[in-house]
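Reposting from the mailing list since nobody answered there.

I have sequence plus structure tokens for a pair of proteins and want to know whether others read the tokens the same way I do. The first protein:
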Amino acid sequence: MTTPRPASSRRTRSRANGDGTVYQRKDSRWEAAGYVLAPGNTRKRVRVYGTTRKEALAKLTEKIAASNLGLPVAAADSTVSTYLTYWLNGVAVHQVRENTHTRYAACVRLHLNPGLGTKKLARLTARDVRTFLYRLRITCQCCTQGRDTDRRSCCTIGQRCNKRLSPLTVTYVHSVLKSALEHAVREDDLPRNVARNVKTPAPRPRRFKPFTASEARPFLHAAISDRLHALYELALRTGLRKGELLGLHWEDLDLNTGTAAIHRSLQRTRTRGLTVLHTKTRTSERRIVLPTECVNSLKTHREQQEEARRAAGTG
């Protein structure tokens, strides 16, 4: 006689074909497994874990949903290069601005893929990352990126041009790798982010030499008749970023109270050209007080615009 299975059995009722399976492990965690689209247009069985059945099932459902949309799901046994391609085109492209994604892609193409691309994602160690970053700091980029293949410059003629990456760029490469691996951890493809265990030297901030007051005054005086004089006045007296300055509209300015609302920025993107976007973060949105000199310059600039419109017959 067969003993009936207890109601608290770890195995759950079967799910529909293609939905995968969910069950509780001996260590009390829940595991869900199913087939998804993998890089290379193949199908692969993936496993995800959670502290509850609902959590594990939600993770699996998310992967299957992405797979059904034709988005490949990277697995831990893929190479770093394959995973970075998946992360760039399937994840980061939906989370960051176009210019940021372009910088990510250049970082992957020029540095991460040549240095770490052939390694298996699951076997990547903190030592691998540390060694990669060290070599990145000391290697001549002229040679690494094949810029001296004409055999007339740099290392091909026995000379070192020492065109090395700046500490700031090395730190940026490290941060891109950390972001990609962090997503792998969130998707349960990796148990931990090994790039976070590697420390890079803090880059020294760039030294800028802004105009002094004695230098700014003659510059503004010389530019008094220039069409962009009001822009120069705003730049020197408020310290706004270039994109914020160029993104200002008249409706953002209250010349009666002498204030300006900063909530957008003009940027040049690869696909759309010059584009007005919201500021990168909420904290960048602010209202500033305009110096009297800026208010006067803006009033003059507006009068000149109105005269130009009337002269052109559009006023």
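The second protein, same order (residues first, tokens after):
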Amino acid sequence: MPIKRNAQTKIEQNVEIKTDKLIYQSTTPLIPYHSTTYTPIYVTDNNNVEYVCKNPLKLGIKKHFDAEIIAECQANFPLFFENINTIYIPKKVETHLKRSVPNSILKRIDANLDIAVEKSILIASGLSSTFYSDERWKELSSKIMDEQTRKGNDNTRIYPIIIDALKYSTNTTEGIIKVKTNEYGIETYQEGVACKSYCISDTFFKGNLVKYVIKDMEILEKRKRFFYNQLKKAIDNPIANNLIGLYSKIKLPSYDEILYAAKKLTLSKHKNKKGKTLTFLNKHPKSYFKDSTTRCFVEENIKLFDYLTQQGFMIPIIGNEKSGGRVVDSFTLMPSWIRKLVKIDGESIVEVDYKALHPNIAMSLYRGSKKYLTHKLVAEESNIDLTVVKTLHLSFFNETLRGMKASKLYNYYKSSEPQMLKKIEEEKWGSIKNHKITSMRMFAKEVEIMTNSISELNSMGICVGYVYDALFCKKSDAQIVKEIMDKVALENNVFTTSCINY
């Protein structure tokens, strides 16, 4: 449900945000392991929709998807979708394509120049989410780009020509996008492992995002089929299905509530999980702050919140095997300090998360000797600051061999868990083209644990929010959620416990 805003809101400390100047995004969020070129699929917050928490919507909708009766779906379930014909793109992209890119390139995309421009705009929109991300580079799936831009049943691959059009530059005009290259200037990707990475060029990144309405019916039909297929996948997935059941119970914070919380947190020098300090821009550009890379900004966090919720909630996206099947939705991508302001059935929420889940999963999978490992224990035994340990654990097992050895945690695990570390190193070395095999196995175990926990809670009539290795719920449900999570971890031979964060 969108937040109601006045044209201008002021709070103390001379903080002023002009909400009528904000341009909000509606394209795919940054999802490194499951990138697409599409807008998120939204579910409306509608209390008139009846849900059975254990199996929401499944009986009434699955038969339509199995038959792929798109018109039937539109007629019976219109509340679950927002304008799939609307995307958001960097300002002046359309003008650049029409005025600066030679017709000779555009005609290779489609003889109809308007359609050629529209297909190029569609691909560019897949990078718009980076406007609200710390990471400007984003992987785009060549398979999906191909499926969505190919003309009819023609097997000709159009998307490489579209990429050329988006990259086109002159001595006086920068291209719309750039492709990540290695030290030798070669565009990098690994077949079956990593797609090419792209980013919006500086010229187009400086402006705002603007709305664009797709007109070509062939493009729209392909998008419809993609969206409906995504919803079917969500309904068939226990975690995502649970989330669909939860959304009608969610009450989002008002704009004033968010600003009030932001003021309190900035005064207390609040840091997010990545150790970045929450800060008001106060109309300054990021460059105003010499240490801007160590900060996250209130105004940008609010824009991200709007992007994730103003049209309803995203239909949950299920990741592929590289993510272990992790699920991404509006709340996993939401800034955590704003997510904490959400209410379920009008009741404040708490987050229940596992203590050092991934290190303990590593102990289980690779036969480590320790049980119930905590970040605090590692910090004490390694003489590394606790905050640093927490941050390093986010990526340690996902690193290359070289990256692991460069980490401050390496010597700790080498001395305390040499056999476990040896097994991990052998695995990464044996799969040299995909060093992420270790994290893929760990993500899969994490998803298994969270799936089992959610399924058991759903059987008790409890729907919960999901944030990878944590669940959020009503305060009144916190104790039972903790008990179930602890039980399921033990059943999966992972020795850790959960903690309720009030």
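Reply #1 (J.P.):
I read it the same way you do. The two ends are 25 Å apart (CA to CA).
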